[in-house]
Specification:
The chain has 211 residues and is an all-alpha fold.
């Protein structure tokens, strides 16, 4: 039996850089409009993504990572219905500053995945995970939230099949095997229908390392 190809820090770095490049195409007037079908604006969605990457990085930071909760950063929403974040971008810095915050959050997680022992485990609501698992989660967040924004604005966004395939194998054991990796990932995250498979109303990934 062939071993599963691992999800790597390089995969995460590549995904974030592709997302930053794609999001530079967002028109300046579109940032306060909704991100596709989400109830968040495009700006809030990128802040949420940067916050996810930051949150996954800091889960790996303590010498003894918490096993029953997130690391105790304070977080909150800036408006009713907005995402609850620890990370917020300075609006005065504009879209370039927002994307800088996203890139920095990605770099923090990349660095932690590269330098944390593979045997480390830290809390996540979907199961305590290892550095590879947090890298895979960060990639999924990056790919699908960039999709949310791009789809709502009619921008082209199709990430590499190899990266999609590796995160599917790591986080979604029941992913369809009879379709291309990117459509399968969109289906697994409730964002697309597949022939004969209505999109799931509720979805989750499985972050716990394979036994």
């Amino acid at each position: 039996m062939n071993a599963r190809p691992p999800v790597t820090a390089d995969d995460l770095d590549h995904a974030v850089q592709l997302a930053v490049a794609a999001l530079r195409q967002v028109p300046g007037t579109a940032w306060d409009g909704n991100a596709g079908t989400l109830e968040w604006t495009c700006w809030e969605t990128v802040e949420h993504l940067a916050d996810d990457l930051f949150a996954y990085a800091v889960q790996l930071g303590p010498r003894t990572p918490p096993q029953d909760r997130e690391v105790a950063f304070s977080y909150g929403s800036r408006r009713p219905g907005g995402p609850a974040n620890s990370v917020h971008a300075d609006r005065a810095a504009g879209p370039d500053g927002l994307l800088e915050v996203l890139e920095a959050g990605g770099a923090l997680l990349v660095a932690m995945v590269r330098t944390t022992s593979p045997g480390v485990r830290s809390h996540h609501v979907f199961g305590a995970s290892d550095p590879e698992g947090f890298a895979a989660m960060g990639i999924v967040e990056t790919l699908v939230h960039t999709h949310d924004i791009a789809a709502g604005l009619g921008l082209t966004w199709e990430p590499p099949a190899g990266i999609c395939s590796r995160v599917l194998a790591r986080l979604f054991p029941d992913a369809p095997a009879d379709t291309a990796p990117w459509p399968a990932l969109l289906w697994c995250t409730g964002r697309a229908d597949l022939p004969g498979r209505p999109r799931p109303a509720i979805w989750r990934w499985y972050g716990a390392p394979p036994v």
